[in-house]
Each structure stands twice: as C-alpha cells, then as structure tokens.
Amino acid sequence: MGSETTLRLPIINFSDVGHLKPSTSQWDLVKSQVHKALEDYGCFEALFDKVPLDLRKAIFAALEELFNLPLQTKLRNVSRKPYHGYVGQYPTVPLYESMGIDDANISQKVESLTNILWPEGNPSFSKTVQSFSEQVSELDRIIRRMILESLGVEKYLDEHMNSTNYLLRVMKYKEPQTKEAKLGLNSHTDKNIVTILYQNQVEGLEVQTKDGAWFTVKPSPESFIVMIGDSLLAWANGRLHSPYHRVMMTGNEARYSTGLFSVPKGSYIIKAPEELVDEEHPLLFKPFDHVEFLKYYYTEEGQRDEAALKTYCGV
Ligand SMILES: O=C(O)CCC(=O)C(=O)O
Ligand SMILES: [Fe+2]
By the number of CB atoms within 10 A of the CB, which of 114, 137, 210, 264 ranks highest? Predict the structure, then answer.
C-alpha cells in the first residue's frame, strides 16, 4: 500500500509557552499552523520545552524498570476498559508490549497502580509518570483550544475539555536484531481525541499521508508527535484528518515510547456541534459513546475493519 517517501511532518513551536496566550498574535499564528497541519496530515511535530530534560530522561528509565518486571507482575495491571491495562504477547506483533496508566496526571491514581506493581512502593516511578503526564497534558489543552477556536466552536471548550480524561500508554518494542524491518505495531488510526507521542532515540513510527504513502517520523529529542484520533474527527464532522500509522523496527536497540491520550469518558455522547453541520458538510457520524465504540473495535470483526468508525456509526 503506497511507497516510502522522505517527507517530514510540519514542525510547530510551542516553546516559551508562558508567552503563548490566547488572543495574542503569536497564538493566532501557531493556531493557523496547527489547523493546516491537522487538515493536511492529521499530525505534526511539536517543540515543547515545558517538560524539563531530566524528566524526559527519567520517564525512559521508569519505562525500563517497568518492562523489566516479571510478566506475572505486569499482568496485574487489568482494566475494565479495553486496551487500558497490560497488552502484549501477541503472536502477530511479538516485539510489542504496552501498559496503560489511566488518569496518569492524577497522583492518587498513579500511586494505586504503582502499589499493585510494586507492593513495597516505588514513589519515584509514580512521581515521574504523574509529572510527565501533567506537563504533556498542558500541550494537549493548548492544542485542543486552538482546534476549537479555528473551527469557530470555542463556546464548547469547557464541555469538550471536561468530557475527557488522560490515559498514558507506555510502550516497549523489542529489538528485532535484523536489518530488514519487522512489524512493531499494526497500522491503525487512534480512536481517542488527541494523542501526544514521545519516544527514545530509536525511530520506528511511520505515518501514512492522505494519498497512501508511508513515511518515517524522525522527531528531534525535544519534540513530541501530536496526532488526531477518530473521536475528534467525528466531533469535527470530518474537518480534520486522523492518520493511519504503524511502527516498524530494525536493529539492535529497544524502542520505548509514551502516548498521552485524551480519551472521551464512558457514557459521554460524542456529537458534532450543529455549527459544523450544514449543506456543504452533512453529518458524517451518528452520536456515539466512545467506550461502546471501543468494544466494537476490539472484537475480531472490528480488528479486521479498516473503517471501524464508519461501520460503527457512519451516517
Ligand atoms: O509507539 C509509537 O510511537 C506509536 C504507538 C501508537 O500508535 C499507539 O499506541 O496508538
Ligand atoms: Fe496509535
């Protein structure tokens, strides 16, 4: 499907965030870059210096410690919601393992999961995960505000922000020890609102353009990859793109990555605002509950379905 290209994602600068305030000319400039990137690619590279260097290093040390736990211990992280707990040991993606940390910006929630994994406690792990998630969530809120403003529907900002919580999913992709690329994670679109990815120095993330070409994302150590999920695509009535992406691994080094996912809360009904529906833009998706959609997506049929959102609630 498509060929490899040497494309580079748009790079948008969110550093000096203290000065990046709504209604300033700098804000409006960054907002127009965000809107264009999300229409064209559904993702971009964000420079964001709010997360200090020592915390960026600490998060990968914490991930190594976490994935080094025995499998039996990692399996204790179970969740009622699909794909929110421990995921791994899949024959189709043998290099891949991940852990979901729900409400990762809330100390108490992170501490209770930490205590399940380390009954003797591990305060430095929970502190690192919580601080990292809190700092990155600030970028999520800036971007979502910019998106709503650029769609002209900022009056829904409070409702929109209150309708989600933050899941930090952390990933390890084992080194395949080959020069030939091996599948790390299947091609998919994210199902949530906004995803913010961060990775160690090992590349592997590939994004597909609207016309079907795959390219490798090569973020600098300072940058985060921001991506739109299907729930925001539906809410925006198709005005933004949610890109297919996958992970391909080569070489002798493990890849660690983190994804901060803003996820619609269960029983909140996602429905495009009336301002985004008109003759030129007929309603594309019926109102839906994200958790119910996930239940369909994780069925055997849903996993094979390349257009799961459309099948589930397309008009
Ligand atoms: O590891 C990555 O960079 C991508 C992970 C991803 O796409 C996901 O967890 O949805
Ligand atoms: Fe993804």
Answer: 264
